Amino acid sequence: MRKIKLQINITIDGFVGGENGELDWMLTESDQKQIDYLNGITENVDTILLGRKMALESIPHWQKVAESASKNQETDFAQFFTETQKIVFSKNLQHIDGKNVVLENGNLKDAIQKIKDKPGADVIVYGGANFVSSLLKENLLDELNLFVHPVSIGKGLSIFNEKTKLKLIRSEFYTNGIVLNKYEI
Q: For 111-117, what is the mean pLDDT?
């Protein structure tokens, strides 16, 4: 059975975005060990899951980076993101533009179970906050890769809205101050 893996940046006080989704608190991924880990997470992935808000921002952004002539630190990820099948979960959208994008309007739990039951590689979730919260509430995630930034913002968007027991299976720190905590549920 395919594994559903979350990769998300989070503040030390548990927020994944400011009150309006701001990400200005995030540190850059400048540690090669962290970049290698991020690349490793996606080695056995053939599907990306996104909520509506995250999809509307990230799909055009990464597609533009992937299509640009310039090569930079983000190009490899942009190519991966653009070329990989993306399933966007939304109750409101009837259509979404982008390469390799499928829209899912059905029941979240049923749709995720169908994805897990299909043959294929693992699946990665990139967010947003409400979508990830729903996945946690329904116990649909198998692995959480939380990149904890040494920043406190006081209030914002959280993915944890109820008691959730996790099993820590890996923890490592990077020279930029970010700490990875990898959990199984």
A: 95
